[in-house]
Amino acid sequence: MKLALRKQKILAAVIEHYIATGEPIGSKSLQNTEGLDVSSATIRNELADLTVKGFLKQPHTSAGRIPTEYGYRYYVDNLMEPIKLDDRVKRYIENRLLSSSDAPEHIIKTAGAIASELIGTAALSTTPTGDNTRVHRIKFVQTGRHTSMLVLITSSGMVKSRLFRCDFDITPEMLNVFDRALNESLAGQPLSAVNRPFVQTFAASFGELGLLMPDMLTAVMDACKESLGTNVYTSGSTKLLYQNDFDLISARGVLEFLSDSDSRDKLLSGIPEGTTIYIGKENSHVLLRHSAVVATRYEIDNHPAGLMAVIGSTRFDYPKAVAILECIAEYTGSLIDELLSVRQ
Amino acid sequence: MKLALRKQKILAAVIEHYIATGEPIGSKSLQNTEGLDVSSATIRNELADLTVKGFLKQPHTSAGRIPTEYGYRYYVDNLMEPIKLDDRVKRYIENRLLSSSDAPEHIIKTAGAIASELIGTAALSTTPTGDNTRVHRIKFVQTGRHTSMLVLITSSGMVKSRLFRCDFDITPEMLNVFDRALNESLAGQPLSAVNRPFVQTFAASFGELGLLMPDMLTAVMDACKESLGTNVYTSGSTKLLYQNDFDLISARGVLEFLSDSDSRDKLLSGIPEGTTIYIGKENSHVLLRHSAVVATRYEIDNHPAGLMAVIGSTRFDYPKAVAILECIAEYTGSLIDELLSVRQ
DNA sequence: ATTAGCACTCGCACACCTAGAGTGCTAACG
DNA sequence: CGTTAGCACTCTAGGTGTGCGAGTGCTAAT
After folding, report:
1. Element (DSSP H or E) covering residue A234
2. How confident is the model over B198-241, as pLDDT tens digits?
3. A222 contacts in chain B (CB < 8 Å)
4. How do B232-235 and B122-126 pair as beta strands?
5. Would you tell me how many other CB atoms lie within 10 Å of the CB of residue A78?
6. What is the DSSP track for B122-140?
7. B91-123 pLDDT, tens per residue?
8. A62 touches chain B (CB under 8 A)
């Protein structure tokens, strides 16, 4: 729907006032809006119209107007102007990321923490998705007479380990043989390829020896499967409880949602590349019906990889959140790229 | 302070009623208490006395009595009877733990989740403390021309990784040399021994080559230092927001506390072996002033290692929490022992 | 199309009231 | 001297009533 210029101006003014203060605004206060030189009665007419069209609503008859979810959507799609981030903020983000320790997981965790801190709401960050990830290397470390640890390193620099036990004594030579054989056939394979058929073929090609170590092969499979899933880090979730435009039920709902890995992962995996905004009922999950999600994917090796996201009430400073998230995502991606020497 | 038998009976009855219902109880309802055959007037006298002595208090004049923190303390120390866990519950715990994947971190995380689920409040579980932990093995995996990953495996089965980069091309032979040298001098060392002096001595003994790799040695040190710290897993923290005897401020405080790793670790590291209960102001941290913590240490290789703890309002089913935590801690310890083959 | 004026609506804050629960005190009892 | 019955008292929760202020929608004039 195309709105007349004056209506757009009024809609933007209502939304920006509401985002800033959390209070409804009425026709009188709107007269002070820059470049809106009409009487309050005119504004009242426009407000009534915007309300009928579904962009605005009144909490109750004698209150001012606040945006509906539809209003926010229109604002996000048509009215909001992308803000340019202050250089100091950019430098702050870069420094914080650089001073986190040199493990990809740490960097990603820190990225989430920065987002939460700067945007002032709960933030999520995920390790890269496994789709483009391959097995980099598998290592064995003996831990006991019958037990050993398997360490899987993926092409995106993630590490997973598994303990397994055998019925017979493990010798270093044996581990060496397995080390060589496994890496020969697995290194470079996509993680998703390491499934039961693959492992069974591998074991078969190994003859009798292969049959001896079902536990080890299960461990390999397990580790690959787990690496295929992403780790999700949550930051600043208590901030939700301080947002006064968020009632306890909704805030609790979001917290509940965040701690339920199934529904959380379902949301996250559905987010496309670039920057995405879900407002209110646009979220498929019931618990997020009163919340907004702003998410963006960072890239590793020029491929969309993991996510940076913030989540809060629908009353959200969308322009700011988008700018900060995109900045963090960019730095995070290039920092990990650098560490993995993907960009030589 | 020694209390007369009848006073003890009344105190226990008040506390147990309050734990069960969350409601204050008055003299009349207390007459129904098993084995208390006196009039309500007599009970009123006793209640007044217990109130003066500080065991009980009234939310307001016309309400019944509820326990004070001091009352809870007396109950926990003198009155509460240890409950024997139902066999089905025990089996449930064991099965849940056995079906978690074979990585110590997973088991510990699951243990926390079970505790939260069965006790119905937030739970914490930690990986073993580093005090008795030694370096088991260090592995190198090349990730790029100038970058490599270091994987540290500790004697308690934990894995830490670090990426590092060098100014020159890394060769497999070089990594092999370092692998051998590092493991020769580090394997079996307590993690705490791997500090800067140690690393410098090591580098010096290596001559020129040692000077070439400051980043690698820093990575080793970092990884050891990080392994010295414990990982803390939180489960069911949203449950705090559903406890109706917990006002929003207190619940939020606890959540805040749980997400602040510094103060959280400070609490956890101060907990002795065995089972410990902190009630209200006994907690050193301000944010826990209205909460209770029940914690117990599990053992690995017969040494007190990590923690299982639950946290909630002071209105707490202490006997149940103690019984369940101790059961979980025991199974967790022996399961990890078994995986690490410490008990052959 | 815009504006001034005005009656109207509604939520909030506050005061007020009542019912019910539980108490402490007093005096009587064994 | 401990125990008990009786009673006046206190306090909270919850319901009702009222005035204020903000903001609206409508109408008639420009």
Report:
1. strand A232-235
2. 888 888 887 776 666 788 888 899 899 988 888 899 999 999 99
3. 101-102
4. antiparallel
5. 13
6. EEEEEPPPSTT-BEEEEEE
7. 999 999 998 877 788 999 999 999 999 999 999
8. no
